[in-house]
Design a protein that fits this description.
Length: 212
């Protein structure tokens, strides 16, 4: 069955592979703050999420998205009913925008800054998954054991915040953080107004039961 998750994954792979060998595709789609500031190319907030720096960057993001996306897409269908798939698409696309807003305001006049990849949106999907399944085991290769998701999440955010402050490497850690936060906020707000499901209360209940 061709799910929304698989459609996004396949589309991202096709566009990313085409960009690997075509610099014009990268230049046209990449997140380039000054092009947004000076030429109103707002579409770059979204298009940059469909291109990646190299095969490993693409593989890591899409593998992680595949692991969590199916679970979250199914949960959206259960929570929101007929609106579930549409809201899943809206969540993914808007998370690409929201996760980059702090980056844009920090670099809107920086002609040397460019960013690409779906990491912010993938973080949104991951943290929705964590919020819905807080006691599931999670780990990072090569650590040989798993820890509960509700512990893994804050650790991940803490490490990302530290690396963002240090300016470590060429990775946009800020996008990871804001994507994660936005994913949880999107779930909580839309559930509050559109359904009777209360994810915050369920999260607290599951974590509390874990220690009993």
């Amino acid at each position: 069955m061709l799910t929304i998750t698989l459609i996004i994954l396949l589309l991202t792979c096709v566009i990313s592979f085409s960009a690997f060998s075509n610099e014009k595709v990268i230049n046209d789609l990449i997140f380039y703050p000054t092009a947004i500031t000076n030429h109103n190319q707002w579409y770059r907030f979204i298009t940059c999420g469909f291109i990646h720096a190299d095969f490993m960057h693409l593989a890591f993001n899409m593998y992680t998205f595949y692991l969590f996306g199916g679970m979250v897409e199914e949960a959206f269908t259960m929570i929101y009913g007929e609106m579930g798939k549409a809201l899943y698409i809206i969540m993914y696309l808007t998370s690409l925008v929201v996760c980059l807003l702090p980056t844009y305001f920090a670099h809107r006049n920086n002609y040397y800054y460019r960013s690409l990849g779906a990491s912010g949106a993938v973080s949104a999907v991951i943290f929705i998954g964590i919020f819905l399944n807080p006691t599931m085991g999670m780990g990072i290769f090569p650590i040989p054991f798993h820890i509960p998701a509700f512990i893994f999440g804050p650790l991940y955010l803490g490490i990302s915040a530290y690396l963002a402050k240090k300016g470590h490497g060429n990775i946009n850690h800020s996008a990871h953080i804001w994507g994660a936060v936005y994913g949880i906020v999107f779930l909580a707000v839309t559930s509050q107004f559109l359904t009777e499901f209360r994810p915050v209360g369920r999260f607290v209940e599951e974590v509390t039961n874990y220690f009993r």
